[in-house]
Design brief:
mainly alpha, 347 residues, MetI-like fold
């Protein structure tokens, strides 16, 4: 298993490099020039103290200076990429790329990219951890019960509700819930992450944030119920029809032992992929939910950065998502081996 993991990590590194090259080359096609923008901004501040010719000369000097600083003083795309990564020297022989901690600059936030991401990432993790715990805590037991009581009135009722949750778009469910819980009942606030103007600390801050996040969490949980519940139900129904389950019942084992020890273990294999992917989604954020409820999360940051052409932020976020996807595939393979020894890899 150890050799397999090392080999997979090598493959992951190769795929990550290839994808990073492709993304870098794609964004090089975008008509955005950081050196030009910085040089033009600096020249604008000197507009009243220099003549037109002096301004043009000064702009050329500044433009070349910033090109050398950012490693764009060459048309060779691979050299630019290697400088961006931090494995090829700049004009003065120094290195200033990703490997040196230079992740770019956000013109929208007017700060380094590494200073922009922590707050949205923290909010996204906070929101999605609660949503994932609630969703898994409801859908897994509910799917097992529906499979065991297949064809009952309860099973039929749950199937109707889950079809609604699975079929309706997230934004429509969010609008309905806002109308019911905010406009009609007045229970929850429609947007935001805390009481405006508040400076709560400790438990008071925790409960205030939880109150504002309650409705987004309810919407996210409801949207997750449909797909996951039906997935667990289908896997359990298939597992309960296996010959080993019939043998376990013929031996006189208690029904709970048959369901939770034998059937559930066999049903886990197809569910693992969905659950692990769900957990990895904790870091990516929910674009629709964050937009609907004005939450400062990763999804909202991504769409805002794309709309404002803040490409350094976009590039770092996309590299982060690529790394998450590759890591997720490795975790899924490892979990498969832990769940079912039959698929364990020893080479």
């Amino acid at each position: 298993m150890g050799k397999y993991i090392v080999k997979r990590i090598g493959y992951m590194a190769a795929v990550f490099v290839i994808l990073s090259v492709l993304m870098f080359l794609i964004y090089q096609l975008v008509p955005a020039n950081r050196a030009y923008t910085d040089a033009r901004t600096e020249v604008q501040g000197l507009k009243n103290s220099l003549s037109a010719e002096e301004l043009e000369t000064k702009f050329d000097e500044l433009y070349l200076k910033y090109q050398r600083r950012y490693g764009t003083d060459t048309d060779n795309k691979m050299v630019r990429y290697l400088r961006w990564v931090g494995v090829y020297p700049l004009y003065d022989g120094s290195y200033n790329g990703l490997l040196q901690g230079n992740f770019g600059y956000s013109y929208e936030a007017r700060k380094e990219v590494v200073e922009v991401i922590p707050a949205p990432l923290t909010n996204t993790i906070k929101i999605n951890i609660w949503a994932t715990i609630l969703a898994l805590g409801i859908t897994i037991p509910l799917g097992i019960i529906c499979a065991v009581k297949k064809g009952s009135k309860m099973d039929q009722g749950v199937q109707i509700v889950t079809i609604l949750g699975y079929s309706l778009p997230t934004f429509l469910i969010a609008i309905v819930f806002i109308w019911v819980f905010c406009s009609l009942l007045g229970i929850f606030p429609p947007s935001g992450m805390k009481t405006p103007g508040s400076n709560y600390v400790g438990w008071q801050k925790f409960w205030d944030e939880l109150y504002y996040l309650a409705l987004p969490l309810i919407v996210m949980t409801f949207c997750s119920l449909g797909g996951m519940t039906r997935y667990v139900r289908a896997s359990m129904i298939e597992a309960l029809s296996l010959d080993c389950i019939k043998t376990a019942r013929a031996k006189g084992l208690r029904e709970k032992v048959v369901i939770y020890s034998h059937a559930w273990r066999n049903a886990l294999i197809p569910i693992v992929t969905l659950v692990v992917g769900w957990f990895l989604g904790i870091f990516s954020g929910s674009l629709v939910i964050e937009q609907m409820f004005a939450l400062n999360g990763m999804g909202n940051l991504m769409i805002t950065s794309l709309m404002t052409s803040d490409f350094d932020v976009v590039m770092l976020l996309q590299l982060f998502y690529v790394a998450l996807s590759l890591l997720g595939n490795l975790i899924i393979d490892i979990v498969y081996g832990l769940v079912d020894p039959r698929v364990r890899v020893n080479k």
